[in-house]
Amino acid sequence: MPQGSFEFSRLQILVSRRVSPFISGLLSTKLLFLAVLPALLLAGPGPVRAETDETTLFMNGYQAHLQGENDKAIATLNEVIKKYPKGKMTDLALYWLGKTYVKVGRPQDAIQAFRTLKTKHPKSAMAPLASEQLARLEKEQVAALPPSKEPSADKPPEGLAPPTRLVPERKVEPERPAPPPPVVAKKEPPPAPEKKEPIAKATPPPAPKPAVVAKPPAVAKIEEPPQAPPVKEAKPPRDGGAVKPEDRPAEPAGKEKKEPERVAKAPVKPKPAKPSIEAPSKEEKQRAAADHRRKAIESYEKIVQAAPASPEAARARKRLAALGVREKPPTPAKPAVLARKEPPLHAPQPGESVFLVVERVAGVEIGGAPPGLTSIPGETVTIPFDVANKGNGDDAFVLTSTLPPAYQAVFFHDAAGTGQVRAGEPSVTETPRLAMGLKTRFLLRARLPIELLDGARQTFEIKASSKSDPTVSQAAPVALTSSAPSLRGVFALDRKTVKPGEAVSYTLTVQNAGSANARLARVVVSYPGSLSLSSAGPAATSADPLTHVASWDLDLLAPRDRKALRLDFRVREDALADQDLVVRAVLQSAQGEPVVSVVSAAAKVESVAGVRVAGIDAPRTVFPRETIFIPFTLKNTGNGPDKFSVRAQGDSGSVSVYEDKNRDGVRQPDEPEVETTRTLNPQEEVSLLASLTVPADEPDARRQAIRVVAASERTRSATAEAARLIVVSRPIVTIATQMASKEGVPGKVFSYQLVCTNTGTSPARRVTISESLPPELEFVDSQPRPGRVDGQRLAWEIADLGSGQKEVLTVGVRVKRGIPAGTAVRKATSVRYTDLRDQVYE
What digits encode the pLDDT tens for the residues 393-426? Predict the structure, then answer.
């Protein structure tokens, strides 16, 4: 049963001809308030503007009661009663507080709440309902007492007939007009007058003949003839429902016909006289009618002020107009309070007796949704569907979908039926309130995630749930399929092995294997540094030789279409041996497809040996007996590791080769002589020293070449040679004697000159000229004077004598007397000097 409605489907109707018209009117008015109350409290879904904070607080407690949050309802309703003891909602709060206490099994607290309502608010429209609840609770407490403690009035006197059996509610027509003798009814505690239900009057039947109706909503007692007093009805189940057929005791056939005879034969005791009920006067009737009219007007005005836009408010305005009452201006509203709105119950007309109220049944149907849609990732898809109210009352429905959050699903109301979402239209999460049988159209808009692959399928449900009964819902299955481009690529290579300096070509074929056009696809190719891009066809959109990257932009590539890209490269000279030249491509789609990488086959670089030997080009000057070290460099110009054999030779002697580890040009003790180099990597070089000792007798200004030859051990044909020219330089000092006449007269002085000349290419240092005079001659003087005179021995010293320079020494001597004529006189002259490296020459 929907929350907030009252259960009338099992209401029992007690028939009595002695009920006065005044009581019948009172009961009808009570049922009027019973119908108005849910309309006042549950004016429909949507925001309701509360008149006061008291109304807001009460509605919170009432909603908690409806939703089963009993502890919250008790706390909130008690707060209303304490904060607003004389407020407009205090009577309602007391009533629903008592109802909540009943739900949680606290009858004593419920009785206290209902008694407080009757005592402090006797004129409230809820007072009759509180009386009914109070009477029912007190009766249940009495029934729960042990048999020994039950009131004696509950025990039927001896000889009385048992209570009459209950049958489904129908008028029972007797077969014969014979009236049975009077039967005294079982005494019961007098119930509260508010417990009376609307009484239906029936004409006395001539004979009891039961008739059964399918699915009876209520039960009634068999009526007695007019002469007989009323018979006490059987006690119904506590839940107020009808007696189930399976709960009745089995009876033999024809028992219904014998029932009057059994009752007639039963012993009867005189029935005590009932106190007479005085009929109300005309003034009392008018006063009661005026009171009923005032309460009805108050109820209608509350409905209009609480929910002015609801259907119940419209009906309340019509009733007020029929009563001749003008509508009050709306009270300034406070901030809106969201409250659940349950299906309304239609208020009966004043004075109208209610037999039952049809129970609210929710129903919903979703239709018109396509079973499947196909869309491109990153684009928005709109799914139309219809929602129909299949219930028996106005209802609204909550819209949900099971799409993952990545799809960003939202709902829109397609009131115009265009199938498109208008600009600026707000999204919705529920339908407007739909009348019974009404259908309206909605749109579900979703955006496919851009990373979806081609053919990806997402199944989900569009669900509509009733707001009046959330357990009622229906779902429509839908499937979304992604249609996206799918780029694939493959490389083709024209040769598998290459050498440095050779050309090689790669061809990339790009294909769209998807089901949608590939727009603005991009191809980025990266190649190793050992390759140099010569050309591309078609021409690349951009190419950067520094980063070794080339790219192409493809505007459109239809499904199953292909496009070939050719790249021509040249292998660089420094490409290493056994290197794999691999070209990579990246395919990027604008639709968000994951990046696709394509790798080509490898082109292997063949091994190539190479060597280079270099020396200084300028000639080098050397001196006799000098040991020299001539530097050379050897470089591996091949594309792989290699060793090289080294040999050196000269024109005038053997040459040794050493590795110059510290590259200082001078052989160190730890630098070994080499015939084969260590393993050199590509482009690695080593420093060498060619060592040679110049012979002492090497003539001045002689030129000769020192050669170094290197050969690869991997490829003997790979050789290299370098030569270094050396020039021998030495000083050559000569002494020549010059004189005017070679005849000497004894006793006379004559002079001669010593001419010292350096005819060598190198300066002479510390030149010493020695002159030894024979005994026949006597030294007189010289210019310059000799540095040393030792008897007949004279010596001169010249510090430096450059190349081509000469010095003249003049010596004066006298021929001794007594020397026979014709005597040949001979002298001795010698020279001693050093070169720049202090090597002595004589």
Answer: 999 999 999 999 999 999 999 988 898 998 889 9
Q: Give the whole-angstrom CA distance, residue 87 versus residue 365.
A: 44
Nearest alpha-carbon partner for 639 in 718, 569, 568, 709: 718
Residues 6 or more apart whose CB falls under 8 angstroms from that of 724 comprise 615, 616, 620, 630, 632, 690, 705, 706, 707, 708
CA distances for 544 relative to 536, 549, 599, angstroms: 13, 5, 20
Closest to 48 (Cα-Cα) out of 433, 336, 341, 333 = 336
Q: Give dist(CA 596, CA 352) in Å, integer.
A: 79
Structural domains of the chain, ranges and CATH numbers in brackets: 11-146+195-203+293-350 (1.25.40.10), 364-482 (2.60.40.10), 487-605 (2.60.40.10), 611-728 (2.60.40.10), 733-841 (2.60.40.740)
Helical axes 311-322 vs 282-306, angle rounded to 10° = 150
Tell me: pLDDT of 43 over 80: no
Give the separation between CA 585 and CA 548, rounded to whole angstroms. 12
Q: Is the pLDDT of residue 250 over 90?
A: no
Interhelix angle 70-83/53-66, nearest 10 degrees: 160
Please classify residue 552 by burial: count the beta carbons closer than 10 Å to its beta carbon, then call 0-12 exposed, 13-18 middle and 19+ buried. Answer: buried
Q: Taking 60 as the threshold, does the pLDDT of residue 24 lie above it?
A: no
Q: For residue 212, what pLDDT is reported? A: 37
Q: Where are the beta strands (DSSP E) in 205-329?
A: 219-220
What whole-number distance in Å separates Cα of residue 564 and Cα of residue 557?
Answer: 12
Determine whether 728 is exposed, middle or buried from the number of CB atoms within 10 Å of its CB (0-12, 13-18, 19+).
Answer: buried
Would you state the structure tokens that stand for residue 549, as one six-digit string? 């990257």
